[in-house]
Amino acid sequence: MSIAASYTTFAAREAHGLSSAYERLALAVSRDEELLALLGTLPPAKRQPNLLFGVVRLLGGPVEDPAAFHDYTVANWPTVEAEMRVRATQTNEAGRCTVLLPVLAALPQPLALLEVGASAGLCLYPDRYAYRYGDHEVGSGEPVLECAATGMAPPVGLPEVVWRAGLDLNPLDVSEPADVAWLDALIWPEHTHRRARLRAAVAVAAAEPPVLMRGDLADDLPALAAQAPAGATLVVFHTSMLYQVPAPRREAFVEVVGGLPGHWIANEAPDVLRHDGLPEPPGGALHNVLALDGTPLAWTRGHGQALSWFG
What we know:
With 311 residues, this protein is α/β, with parallel strands linked by helices. The protein has 11 helices and 11 strands. The chain has an 11-stranded mixed sheet. Strand 7, helix 11 (247-258) and strand 8 form a beta-alpha-beta unit. It is globular and about 55 Å long.
């Protein structure tokens, strides 16, 4: 896919209906020959809209007005480029726990959670958040994570988590203001509710920081998984992460995770982690596939805002 096409696709399938600012901005970039040429100097994995827009936001640049965005990005390209080359989209959306919870709550308890691509580890606390599935509430406290769920009975309780660890090439630290600032910059402009959710989730994680290991998703996974306590069900999971991993490494990871004890929960786009016989997704927006041990269960939206169970 060309750079221009990737930006128009982002506008139509990811930003449409969720962020008018990013929809407008992505369409403008797709027609901006000067910006497209600059993006073309970056490695393919570093050209994506979320990364460009997040870096400009982090640097204090404008993302609401496409013309101002163009002028700022061109004028400051050496700085923008340097940040894009060393950073990755590490959106740590605690709201994704809404789609994990029905699966986690149904597994043999207690659980030992291991997230691959953990960022700052905010999705390692599904037992500490509160949830609202329509009128049905689970748990208490802050943040309250909301999800429009169809085709399933909402979970009745929270999982029991006795161990939590994360693996990431560049783990982020919730006690470091610069790391939290990057997480904030990755949230889309209009999403004030997600900013409030981030602050609440950071407070939860900071009260009991997770074990976060710097390492490769295939090479270093077995050693970290071996640290899970005996008597707990190991659950390796990941959400919206594998698209950043080259195909050969994805295949290596799938082979490694399939050989571990316990269970594997994947929540990834269908063109990234393929499954046979999927039903049509609900609507034209980008959906992930929630799967347990390789068996697809549901369509999900990227920030956990919707879950549509199969059958």
